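Recall that a protein's primary structure is simply its ordered list of amino acids. Everything else, from secondary elements to tertiary packing, is in principle encoded there. The following example makes that idea concrete.
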Amino acid sequence: MGLRTADEYRNGLIDNRRIFYRGEQIENLLENPELAIAVDHSALCYDLSHDNPNLAVCTSCGSAYSAFYHVPRSLDDLVRRGALIEEVSRRGAGTIVLKEVGSDALFALLRSCRGQGLENAQAFYQRVIDKDLAVAVAQTDVKGDRSKGPSAQADPDLYVRIVDSDRDSITVRGAKTHTSFSANADEIIVLPTRAMGQEDEDYAISFAVPVATAGLTLYVSPYSSGGTNSFEFPISSEHKLLESLTVFDDVRVPRDRVFLEREPRAAGHVALSFVDYHRFTAINYKQPLLDLIVGAAYLIADANGISKAGHVRDKLAKLVIWAETVRGLRDLAATRAFEGDQGVWLPDPLSVNIAKYTFAHGYHDAVAMLIDLAGGLLVTGPGGEDWDNKEIRAVLEKYYSAAVPAADRLRLLQLIAELTARDYGGYQSVLATHAEGSIEAEKMQIGRSYDRRRATTYVQQILVD
């Protein structure tokens, strides 16, 4: 098939997938106004292949394929991947778009699988690039009582598990949560969520199935819905990310789509291999969001006429330090990249996790500073209907002008309200803490990745001298 167009991607979503949204079953994603926004947002990946092929398209043996799926074999490959992710996120107003996550999982499988599982992963990877498919990733199990492992849960279905197997297939049951893009992807890759003991072997699985597979049901979250009024919702009226509870009710998986089967020793390695790429994706797709926050802070300070105040300059400097620290660590993660298993390169885990921690740890302080600079109009200002009424607009233009005309100031305030005070802002606030792993998970990975020998050896040398 080769590279698909955005419309070919959209048409591929019209099938028998089973989706529930806001309490109702959805027959056609494209006919639901809120879900169609998410589809259009994800279609940016396909537009980018045609708008900027130098960045978004690779060739092999004369065939073109999406650069999102180019397996990193060098430092330069990872630098290019970072630039690609940042560019598509910039088009998506600082929100992850589609192919980034699925490609993270593919790289992890190609790096960490062995034997028949690796052969199956290689074949699935080829299918993805040949057909230019969109792939979602279901990793986080619902987990139940987190003090207990998978096999110790009162309900055995709180982690996805094998309930039957034969020569041709395995049958799985259970549920994953936080599954981004599940409703508007072509395929779903299932990964283990954690390291497992021998007693958990039925849960140590990885596989891929089409979204329109019998027994697979998606319950899509309504969060980050925003609204269609572009004055009040300048971001979420155009951009939306779908997340789901992904339920496997005795789903049959052909054996050629199974990458890991009852291999508890390998489960943790596969899970962490995905994290190595997924957090690198995070610190690249967050770059435009950093620019949105810092740029909005500068502009609203100018608009309100407060940019010369000492406390304002202090806040702006702190925002720049935060944003540029994350950017510098992102660059360092690529320049410290190294070759991993089976020739697949990976970004430096230490730099990646410090960058992600720095972003997440500083996010809420950054939002608080932006709110302080913007003022109370974020929640008390006029709405889109007011602005569309010519008689009312004249009043608003008179009384809400400041160092800039009211039109410029109010539109900027609506953007900041989206980033900080509305549904989209709350959604981003939770993502900052938990997406791509929690702050605590990042600290744990920093501890695992840091080689203390340089520091401790130096101390020991001083002591000996």
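DSSP finds 18 helices and 14 strands in the chain. Residues 310-335 form the longest helix (26 residues).
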